[in-house]
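Methods — Computational structure assignment.
A single polypeptide chain was analysed. Its primary sequence is given first, followed by the predicted tertiary structure written as structure tokens.
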Amino acid sequence: MKKIAFFAMAAMVAAGFSSCGNKSAKLESDADSISYALGVVMTQGVVEHLQMEYDLDSTYTKEFLRGVQEVMTAKTKSKKAYAAGANFALMVTGNLDRAEAFFFQDDTLSKLDRDVYVQAFIAAMQNQELELDDEDARELLERKQNDARRAQNEKQYGAYRLECIAFLEDNKNQAGVQTTESGLQYKVNVQGHGVKPAALDTVLVEYKGSLIDGTVFDQTSGSPVSLPLARMIPAWQEGLPMMAVGSSYTFYVPYELGYGETGNRMIKPYSTLIFDVKLVGVSPYVEKSAEE
């Protein structure tokens, strides 16, 4: 089938350029021969590409070849600019199709309006008065992206979210478990008597992180590690300052204080996290001088 498509395309190429007034090429140098050879071999897969990317069949070959000829042989900057605009529009069309699927997901009736997009694009490019300025547009898109991502996650992980919430609801009634105003749950296994870390300090800890099903996603191995507290998840920023050196706590972390609605590479969205933490030491924060 590919060979048939190739020869059919080759025939259409010849017919198309003939109808465009294209003259037979004269191969008078190595450069001419290489140019011609490239032109021949690069027809491979063009038919399939037009069908897959642009939903264009052989009916539109003549128009396609005219576009190729005008762009490739453009001499003036105005023609090059026009060609660049056409290429940009094709690229954006694909991006809008993907954006449409992302923003509206299962809502097949809602469509992005290409005319409105073009009106906004032209107005912004020509510094005309806008219905939404750049800052407002970015804020709107960020909000809509977050809404779409939340809906996508809820569809995929909604049942898991409820399972994690149910775990915390049951766990807060277990012996020794205390709950802070933020919803962080913790249990004191060993109470130390050393110093407590401040928000900007670096902590020396041994720890194990697991999910509610017992899956261990992270842990120290053999020796404690130093971690800057200000760069840790909110649960650690809240919980570690409650610990004195020598303490061992277990923290039960709702997703809002962990990796949130998005999760990360190893942790699913909405995950409740369980951390067994031993605070081994604290390195106080030292502000660097301007000379350092």
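Note: Helices lie at 2-19, 30-41, 46-54, 61-72, 77-104, 114-125, 134-171, 234-239.
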